[in-house]
């Protein structure tokens, strides 16, 4: 098959937690790390870019570094407990939204190759093989492993090169967070806004004038028009 779809993860395939929910987990983790809960929650938020590009190391190193940034000196046992709580949060997040698996299966049945290109911290690649997605995707590009996060062109190109296809044969589908839609468009990827019920409400998509869907079930028909099939 000469066509592929690069999917965003959070807000597109799985719901993302709200800032309030993420902060509550950070506060619980702060208790085992022995640091101030509000300062730690703020530091977790502020470290998003560093975590998404893997600059803080693996998950244990990340938890230790964040605690030290707010004055903590956690023990190995405390760091291990913090790691378990972060993994529990990610494991809860990585469940497909209703209808997502059916939509992915329908696309695969039509011959589409599927790839993931996601901005994420170290938890997601650790848990990916546990998810219901793993057998449906040919490959997954995790920003924390790659070292580059969308909209950096290297994030998309890692998937395009691995698929051995031209950008024009690789559609990108996402909810528009982190400027990912213009980033994909700039590389020549046919790009679709997933304006679904689980899309990040803070994603800046007001200026998006390209194709959009309100359900991933709409993708097969739309993408048939957007991405030529060289096998036909």
UniProtKB/TrEMBL annotation:
Top-level taxon of origin? Bacteria
Q: Which GO terms label this protein's molecular function in UniProt?
A: hydrolase activity
Q: Which UniProt keywords apply?
A: Hydrolase
A Pfam cross-reference name:
Hydrolase
Question: PANTHER family in the record, alphabetically?
Answer: HALOACID DEHALOGENASE, TYPE II (AFU_ORTHOLOGUE AFUA_2G07750)-RELATED (PTHR43316:SF3), HYDROLASE, HALOACID DELAHOGENASE-RELATED (PTHR43316)
Protein name, per record: HAD family hydrolase
